[in-house]
């Protein structure tokens, strides 16, 4: 492979959303030529990538044509055409993370089976082909409310997840292949991002604590570092590294955990790419997750994951009841707050709960960061 830190090196990125945008921004610091494929002509990364191609990363022929002349392919979304990236890998083009990892991770059922096979702790689950099978299992007492149903393929950003608490919720069952897992009551949710390169070098960021919007099932805010014991932090990092090593992944792996009432760690799911739970690292860590991903896929030593100071990241979501041309309200008030770093993704159209940007709030203490984050959430509105 040719010299990577060079404008002669062409890195292809499948997906041009906000993760692709921030990955392009990191790559530009290293003078790397970025080529992005996304079906949306106004995708977030379209304005910052060196080259942008409008087209579907789910279409075999489009991906194959896009890859012509590129030195490496990476992703910002799992739902790419797996047959295309497998063929590209076979032809000698490095595809990182590897298609073998993507094939497992893109299917939430295969993910859960992988955890069992490798003695990785996860909530008990069953696999089903359709809603009728789920109802039969309920009637036979094989599964009980409350439970969580997740579609096996194409679920992203809270889509394809149903938390069934009562009989009324069962009317919303997904009638597609899915998994049903036990609902973990009163769980704290954390995430650990681990990087792994071809030499097997790994490095973890400190765990972050996630707070979800209960309606959209999206991360609304996260706190770094998480308010957990040193022992729990140590176990979470060890499990994240074991998961990455068992997969053999090259790149980033975001590992989401539940911590149950007995302080047991359970893996919820993983993502083989930069992740929402790592946005804060742009300002709060010595190495951003985007640079760390580049270091991993290019085979460089991982950068320091030490934090500069505590941080809270809040997602800027489209407000309920508004769809159309986006209007941001409260920008000046938010930008007056010391330590607020604003990231707008460039999406021109808003809709309820769409991720339109994020803000990272830096402060001397977690409590101060949380207080400022609460002000940002209450003040900054995304309307149309």
Question: What is the helix tally?
Answer: 11
Please bin the fraction of helical residues: 25-40%
**Roughly how many Å is the radius of gyration?**
20 Å
Number of domains: 3
CATH hierarchy: architecture of the largest domain = 2-Layer Sandwich
CATH class of the largest domain: Alpha Beta
Shape: globular
Instruction: Write down the overall mean pLDDT.
Output: 95
The fraction of residues in strands falls at 25-35%
Instruction: Predict the CATH topology of the largest domain.
Output: D-amino Acid Aminotransferase, Chain A, domain 1
Distance between the termini: 47 Å
Q: Determine the CATH superfamily of the largest domain.
A: ATP-grasp fold, B domain
Secondary structure tally: strands: 21
Sheet of most strands: 9 strands, antiparallel
The class by helix and strand makeup works out as: alpha+beta
Q: Provide the low-confidence segments as ranges.
A: none
The assembly state of the depicted protein chains is single chain
Entry summary:
The chain has 384 residues and is α+β, with helices and mostly antiparallel strands. It has helices at residues 18-29, 60-66, 82-90, 99-105, 108-117, 131-139, 230-247, 281-284, 289-298, 331-335, 366-379, and strands at residues 10-14, 33-38, 51-54, 72-75, 125-128, 147-151, 161-164, 178-182, 188-196, 202-204, 208-213, 218-224, 251-259, 265-271, 311-317, 324-325, 327-329, 340-344, 349-350, 355-362, 381-383. It is globular.
Describe this structure in words.
There is one protein chain. The chain is of the alpha+beta class and 384 residues long. The protein has three domains: 10-95, Rossmann fold (3-Layer(aba) Sandwich); 124-182, Dna Ligase, domain 1 (2-Layer Sandwich); 188-383, ATP-grasp fold, B domain (D-amino Acid Aminotransferase, Chain A, domain 1). It has helices at 18-29, 60-66, 82-90, 99-105, 108-117, 131-139, 230-247, 281-284, 289-298, 331-335, 366-379; strands spanning 10-14, 33-38, 51-54, 72-75, 125-128, 147-151, 161-164, 178-182, 188-196, 202-204, 208-213, 218-224, 251-259, 265-271, 311-317, 324-325, 327-329, 340-344, 349-350, 355-362, 381-383. The strands form five sheets. Strands 9, 10, 11, 12, 13, 14, 15, 18 and 20 form a nine-stranded antiparallel β-sheet that branches. It has a four-stranded parallel β-sheet with strand order 3-2-1-4, covered by helices on one side. It has a four-stranded antiparallel β-sheet with strand order 5-8-6-7. The protein is globular. The termini are far apart.
């Amino acid at each position: 492979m040719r010299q990577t830190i060079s404008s002669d090196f062409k890195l292809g990125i499948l997906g041009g959303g906000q993760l692709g945008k921030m990955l392009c921004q990191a790559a530009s610091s290293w003078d790397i030529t970025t080529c992005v494929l996304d079906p949306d002509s106004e995708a977030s990364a379209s304005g910052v990538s060196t080259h942008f191609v409008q087209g579907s990363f789910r279409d075999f022929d489009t991906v194959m044509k896009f890859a012509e002349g590129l030195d490496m392919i990476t992703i910002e979304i799992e739902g790419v055409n797996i047959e295309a990236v497998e063929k590209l890998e076979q032809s000698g083009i490095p595809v990182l993370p590897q298609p073998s990892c993507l094939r497992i991770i893109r299917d939430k059922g295969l993910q859960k089976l992988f955890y069992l096979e490798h003695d990785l702790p996860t909530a008990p689950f069953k696999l089903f082909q359709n809603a009728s099978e789920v109802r039969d299992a309920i009637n036979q007492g094989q599964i009980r409310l409350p439970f969580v149903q997740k579609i096996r393929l194409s679920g992203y950003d809270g889509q394809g997840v149903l938390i069934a608490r009562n009989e009324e919720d069962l009317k919303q069952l997904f009638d597609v292949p899915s998994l049903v897992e036990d609902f973990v009551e009163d769980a704290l949710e954390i995430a650990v991002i681990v990087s792994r390169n071809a030499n097997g070098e790994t490095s973890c960021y400190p765990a972050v604590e996630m707070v979800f919007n209960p309606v959209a099932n999206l991360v609304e805010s996260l706190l770094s570092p998480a308010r957990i014991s040193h022992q729990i932090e140590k176990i979470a990092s060890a499990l994240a590294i074991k998961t990455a090593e068992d997969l053999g992944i090259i790149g980033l792996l975001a590992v989401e955990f539940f911590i149950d009432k007995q302080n047991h760690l359970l893996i919820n799911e993983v993502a083989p790419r930069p992740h929402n739970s790592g946005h804060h690292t742009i300002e709060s860590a010595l190495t951003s997750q985007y640079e760390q991903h580049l270091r991993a896929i290019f085979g460089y030593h991982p950068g320091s994951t030490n934090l500069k100071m505590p941080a809270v990241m809040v997602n800027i979501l489209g407000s309920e009841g508004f769809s159309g041309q986006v209007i941001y309200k409260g920008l000046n008030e938010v930008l007056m707050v010391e330590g607020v770093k604003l990231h707008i993704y460039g999406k021109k159209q808003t809709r309820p709960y769409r991720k339109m940007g994020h803000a990272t709030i830096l402060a001397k203490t977690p409590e101060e960061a949380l207080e400022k984050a609460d002000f940002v959430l209450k003040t900054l509105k995304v309307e149309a």
